[in-house]
C-alpha cells in the first residue's frame, strides 16, 4: 500500500496528520471485510476515472488489475495526467520487461513527492487487486485532489469545503463527508445546478427518490459536462455507507469541470470589493458636499447680518441688538464651529480612504474646498469682530446723545423762559411821554438789559454748539432739535436788532436827560452779572465734572459772597439815603428787576442745596466707579487663569502628537481622555462669559488687570477644540493606514522618528528626506513622487501623506488592469460584457451600479446591449472619464 505525503509533509487524507502505510493497509483490509460492495464501487469508479484520461490517448482499460500488469497503459496514464514524458517503455513480453515498465511508473510517482511503501512491481504484475486499487487511489490523490485549495484548506478538506460552499443555498443538502451526505443524490444535482442552472430543474427533485436523483445527476454530467459515469445509483443507495474514495474521486471531477466558474467567482469578488469601496467613497463625497454647502450657506446668510451697520434710534433698541449678538455667539455659532471641524475631519478621512484604495484624490465642487470654507469662516469672524465693536461704539454714542439732548432741552427751556416778553418790552414807546428822570431811568435800564443780553450770548452759543454736536452724532430727533435751535437763533437776532433800535431812540432824548439815580444804576450793573453768574451756576451745576472741578468751584464761593454783600450794601445805602432825606421810593429799582430778595434766595439755593447735592452725587459716582472695579478684577482673575491653561494644553497636544509613546491605540485612548478633560473645562468658559456680560452691562470698556479679552479666550478655546479633534483624526487615519497596508508598529515608529527629525528643522517634510526612496533617479521620478505626497503644491508634506507614500511603495493594491482582467473573466474573454452576465455574477446592487455607469461598447465585435467594462475600470482609478 501507500504512505503518501506532499512535499511539504501535508497529508492528503487529513488537515492535521499523516497516514502511514500500515494504517492505509488496515483501512483497505477493513473496507473489504466490512462491505465487499466498496471494492466493487472502487473498481468501477477508478476504472472510469482512468478511462476518462486514457481516451485522450485513444485507448482504455477493461479490467483494472489485468490491464496495468505490463506497465504500458500505466505509464501512458501517468503521461496523460501529468503532461510529462516518462522513460521509453520496454516492448518485450517477458516478465522482466513488464517489471521494468511498472518500476518506471512507480519511480515517476515517487518523484512527485509520494512515498510508496510495500508496493512493488511484482504485486502489480501478479494482478493483486488490493495493491492495484491502492496505487490508483494514490495517483488520484496526487494528481486530482492534492492541488485543490479553498480558503486556506487543501486536498480533501479543501474539496469538502468547496462542496459545502456551493451547496449551502440548497434545501435538504448538508454535505458533511464523502459518503452518506451523497446518498440521496441531491448534493450532486445541487453542484450542477449551482454552476449550470439551465441543466437541472432542482425544485422538482424529491429527497425520498434517491435513485432518480442520482441517475439524473450522472446522466446530465455525462451528457453536458463530459464527466463519465463512475458510480451506479443502485450501489450507492443499496450500501449502508458508500465508499468515500469513490465518491471523492467522482466529486473531484466536478471540481475540475467547474474550475473556470471558480475563477469567475473570484473575479466577481474582486469587482464587488472594488465597487463597494467606490460606492462608500461616493457616499462620503456626497455627505461632504452637502455639509459644505449647508455651512457656506449659513455663513453667506450670517455675514450680511453682521455687516449691517444701520444704527437704531434708542438705547433700548441697541441693547436688543447686543442681546441678539450674544445669542448668536452662545447658541448659533458653537454648533457651526463643530460642523466646520467635523467637515475637515471627514475630508481628511475621505482622502485617506481614497489613497488607501489607490483612487484619485477627492476634489470638491468649485467654491467648496476646505480652503474656501476657511476663507469664508475668516471673513465671518472679521465681520463678527467688527460688528461687536460697532455695537459697543453705538451704545456709547447713544448714551452721549441722551445726555446731550437732555442738556439741550434744559438750556433751551431756560433761554426761552428768559426771552419771554423781551420783544414786547423792546418795542414799547414809553419813552415818548416820560419825564427826563424817567428817560434817564429808561436809558439806564436799557443799558442793563444790553448787559444782560450780552451775558446770554454765551448761552445761545452753547445751545447752538450742542445742536451741532447732536447733528454730527446723527441724533435720531435732530430735525426737532434743529427747528428749536433755529427758532432760538432767529429770536436772538431779532432781539439784537430791537435792542439796537431802542437804544437809538433813547439816545435821541438823552441830551434832555440830566441824571439818574447813580446808586440804583450801580446796583443794577453789579446785580445783573452776579445774577447771571448764579443762573449759570443753577443751569450748569449738574455738569460740573470731577471732584477736583467741584472743589475748585467751591473755592470761588467766598469771593462771590463778598460780591453779594457789596451788592446788598448798595441797596442798604439806597434805603439809608431815602430814609435820611425822607424820600419815598416809588417802587422797585427802575434799572433792573433783580431784587435783593431774589439774589439772597438764589445764593441760599446754591450754598445750601446745590453744593451739598453735588457733593453727594460725586460721592455716589465715586462709589459706583469703585464697585465697577470688582467685576474688572473678577474677570481678570478668571482670564489670567484660562488663557495660560489653553496655551499649556495646546503645547501638550503638540508634544503628545510628536512623542508617540505606546501603540497608536494607546495614543488614541490617551488623546480621547485628554479631549474629555478639555471638554470638562467648558464650565469655566461659560462662567467667564457670564463675567463678560456683567462688565458689558455695566458699560465697562477697559480692564487694566489683564491683557486677555473675551475674544482672545473664545478664539483660543475654539482652536484648542479643533486641534485636539484634528490630532485624534490624524491618529485614526494612521490606524486605518496601518491596518490597510499591513504596516507594523516598528515601521510606523521608524516613519514617525524620521519625519519628526526633519520636521523639527524645517517644520515640514522636505524633499531631501525622500532620499531613502532613491530620488536620484531623475527629475521625472522626483516630480512623480512629489505629485503623490504634495498634490496641491503647498510646499509641505504631512505625516499622513508620508506614510501613504512609504506604504504604497512596499505594498500591492488593486489596479485598473487587475479590475479589467477580472471583468474579462466574467465576460468569457470578450472585450465587452452584458447586463445579463453582470446580474448573474455580481450581487444585485453592485450589478445595477455597474450597468448604470458603464458606457455602451462600440467596438467592431459589439452586440446589442454590450457594455464597455474597460473604460469603466480605468475611470474608477481616475485614468479616464466615464
Automatic annotation (TrEMBL):
Coiled coil segments of this chain: 439-473
Q: Sorted alphabetically, which CDD domains does this protein's record hold?
A: CH_ACTN_rpt1, CH_ACTN_rpt2, SPEC
The Gene Ontology terms for molecular function here are:
actin binding; calcium ion binding
Give the EF-hand domain ranges.
777-812
Q: Does the keyword Calcium apply?
A: yes
Question: Which branch of life, at top level?
Answer: Eukaryota
All copies of domain Calponin-homology (CH), residue ranges: 40-144, 153-259
Q: Keywords assigned by UniProt? A: Actin-binding, Calcium, Coiled coil, Metal-binding, Repeat
Q: Which Pfam families match?
A: CH, EFhand_Ca_insen, Spectrin
Q: Which family does it belong to?
A: Belongs to the alpha-actinin family.
Which protein is depicted? Actinin, alpha 4
**Originating organism:** Cyprinus carpio (Common carp)
Amino acid at each position: 500500500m501507500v504512505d503518501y505525503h506532499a512535499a511539504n509533509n501535508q497529508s492528503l487524507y487529513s488537515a492535521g496528520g499523516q497516514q502511514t502505510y500500515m494504517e492505509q493497509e488496515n483501512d483497505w483490509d477493513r473496507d473489504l471485510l466490512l462491505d465487499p460492495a466498496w471494492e466493487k464501487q472502487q473498481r468501477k469508479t477508478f476504472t472510469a476515472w482512468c478511462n476518462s484520461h486514457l481516451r485522450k490517448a485513444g485507448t482504455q482499460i477493461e479490467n483494472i488489475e489485468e490491464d496495468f500488469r505490463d506497465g504500458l497503459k500505466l505509464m501512458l496514464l501517468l503521461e496523460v495526467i501529468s503532461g510529462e514524458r516518462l522513460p521509453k517503455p520496454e516492448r518485450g513480453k517477458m516478465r522482466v520487461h513488464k517489471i521494468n515498465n511498472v518500476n518506471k511508473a512507480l519511480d515517476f510517482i515517487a518523484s512527485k513527492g509520494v512515498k510508496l511503501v510495500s508496493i512493488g512491481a511484482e504485486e502489480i504484475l501478479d494482478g493483486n487487486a488490493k495493491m492495484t486499487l491502492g496505487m490508483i487511489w494514490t495517483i488520484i490523490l496526487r494528481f486530482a485532489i492534492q492541488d485543490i485549495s479553498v480558503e486556506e484548506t487543501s486536498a480533501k478538506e479543501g474539496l469538502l469545503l468547496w462542496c459545502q460552499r456551493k451547496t449551502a443555498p440548497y434545501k435538504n443538502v448538508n454535505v458533511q463527508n464523502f459518503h452518506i451526505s451523497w446518498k440521496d443524490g441531491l448534493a450532486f444535482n445541487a453542484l450542477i445546478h449551482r454552476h449550470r442552472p439551465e441543466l437541472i430543474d432542482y425544485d422538482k427533485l424529491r429527497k425520498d427518490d434517491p435513485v432518480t436523483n442520482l441517475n439524473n445527476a450522472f446522466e446530465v454530467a455525462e451528457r453536458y459536462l463530459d464527466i463519465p459515469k463512475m458510480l451506479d445509483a443502485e450501489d450507492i443507495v443499496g450500501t449502508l455507507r458508500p465508499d468515500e474514495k469513490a465518491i471523492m474521486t467522482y466529486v473531484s471531477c466536478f471540481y475540475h469541470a467547474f474550475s473556470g466558474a471558480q475563477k469567475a467567482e473570484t473575479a466577481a469578488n474582486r469587482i464587488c470589493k472594488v465597487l463597494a469601496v467606490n460606492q462608500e467613497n461616493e457616499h462620503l463625497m456626497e455627505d461632504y458636499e452637502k455639509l459644505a454647502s449647508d455651512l457656506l450657506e449659513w455663513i453667506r446668510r450670517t455675514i450680511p447680518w453682521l455687516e449691517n451697520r444701520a444704527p437704531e434710534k434708542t438705547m433700548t433698541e441697541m441693547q436688543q441688538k447686543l442681546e441678539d449678538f450674544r445669542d448668536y455667539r452662545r447658541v448659533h455659532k458653537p454648533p457651526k464651529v463643530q460642523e466646520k471641524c467635523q467637515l475637515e475631519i471627514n475630508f481628511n478621512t475621505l482622502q485617506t480612504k481614497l489613497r488607501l484604495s489607490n483612487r484619485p484624490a477627492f476634489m470638491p465642487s468649485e467654491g467648496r474646498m476646505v480652503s474656501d470654507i476657511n476663507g469664508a469662516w475668516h471673513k465671518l469672524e472679521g465681520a463678527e469682530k467688527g460688528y461687536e465693536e460697532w455695537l459697543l461704539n453705538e451704545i456709547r454714542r447713544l448714551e452721549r446723545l441722551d445726555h446731550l439732548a437732555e442738556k439741550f432741552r434744559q438750556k433751551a427751556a431756560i433761554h426761552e423762559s428768559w426771552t419771554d416778553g423781551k420783544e414786547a418790552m423792546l418795542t414799547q414807546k414809553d419813552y415818548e411821554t416820560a419825564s427826563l428822570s424817567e428817560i434817564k431811568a429808561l436809558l439806564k435800564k436799557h443799558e442793563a438789559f444790553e448787559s444782560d443780553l450780552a451775558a446770554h450770548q454765551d448761552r445761545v452759543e452753547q445751545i447752538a454748539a450742542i445742536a451741532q454736536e447732536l447733528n454730527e452724532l446723527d441724533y435720531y430727533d435732530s430735525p426737532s432739535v434743529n427747528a428749536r435751535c433755529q427758532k432760538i437763533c432767529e429770536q436772538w437776532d431779532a432781539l439784537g436788532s430791537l435792542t439796537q433800535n431802542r437804544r437809538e431812540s433813547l439816545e435821541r432824548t438823552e441830551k434832555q436827560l440830566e441824571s439818574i439815580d447813580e446808586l440804583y444804576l450801580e446796583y443794577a450793573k453789579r446785580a445783573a452779572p452776579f445774577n447771571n453768574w448764579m443762573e449759570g451756576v443753577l443751569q450748569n451745576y449738574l455738569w460740573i465734572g470731577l471732584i477736583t472741578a467741584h472743589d475748585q468751584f467751591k473755592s470761588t464761593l467766598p469771593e462771590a459772597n463778598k460780591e453779594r454783600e457789596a451788592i446788598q450794601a448798595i441797596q442798604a445805602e439806597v434805603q439809608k439815603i431815602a430814609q435820611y432825606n425822607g424820600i419815598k421810593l416809588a417802587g422797585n429799582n427802575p434799572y433792573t428787576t433783580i431784587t435783593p430778595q431774589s439774589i439772597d434766595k438764589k445764593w441760599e439755593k446754591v450754598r445750601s442745596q446745590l453744593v451739598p447735592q453735588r457733593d453727594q452725587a460725586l460721592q455716589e459716582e465715586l462709589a459706583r466707579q469703585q464697585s465697577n472695579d470688582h467685576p474688572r478684577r473678577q474677570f481678570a482673575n478668571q482670564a489670567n487663569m484660562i488663557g495660560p491653561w489653553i496655551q499649556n494644553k495646546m503645547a501638550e497636544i503638540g508634544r503628545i502628537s510628536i512623542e508617540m509613546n505606546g501603540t497608536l491605540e494607546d495614543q488614541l485612548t490617551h488623546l480621547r481622555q485628554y479631549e474629555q478633560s478639555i471638554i470638562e473645562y467648558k464650565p469655566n468658559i461659560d462662567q467667564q462669559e457670564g463675567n463678560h456680560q456683567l462688565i458689558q452691562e455695566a458699560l465697562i470698556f477697559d480692564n487694566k488687570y489683564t491683557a486677555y479679552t473675551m475674544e482672545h479666550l473664545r478664539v483660543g478655546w475654539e482652536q484648542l477644540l479643533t486641534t485636539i479633534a484634528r490630532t485624534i483624526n490624524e491618529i485614526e487615519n494612521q490606524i486605518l493606514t496601518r491596518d490597510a497596508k499591513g504596516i507594523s508598529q516598528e515601521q510606523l515608529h521608524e516613519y514617525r522618528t524620521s519625519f519628526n527629525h526633519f520636521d523639527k528643522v524645517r517644520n515640514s517634510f522636505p524633499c531631501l528626506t525622500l532620499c531613502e526612496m532613491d530620488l536620484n533617479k531623475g527629475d521625472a521620478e522626483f516630480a512623480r513622487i512629489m505629485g503623490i505626497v504634495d498634490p496641491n503644491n503647498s510646499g509641505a508634506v504631512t505625516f499622513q501623506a508620508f506614510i501613504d507614500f512609504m506604504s504604497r511603495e512596499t505594498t500591492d493594491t488593486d489596479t485598473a488592469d487587475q479590475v479589467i482582467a477580472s471583468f474579462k473573466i466574467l465576460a468569457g474573454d470578450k472585450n465587452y460584457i452584458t447586463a445579463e452576465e453582470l446580474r448573474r455574477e455580481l450581487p444585485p446592487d453592485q450589478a445595477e451600479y455597474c450597468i448604470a455607469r458603464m458606457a455602451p461598447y462600440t467596438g467592431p465585435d459589439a452586440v446589442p446591449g454590450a457594455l464597455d467594462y474597460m473604460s469603466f475600470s480605468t475611470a474608477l482609478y481616475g485614468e479616464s472619464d466615464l
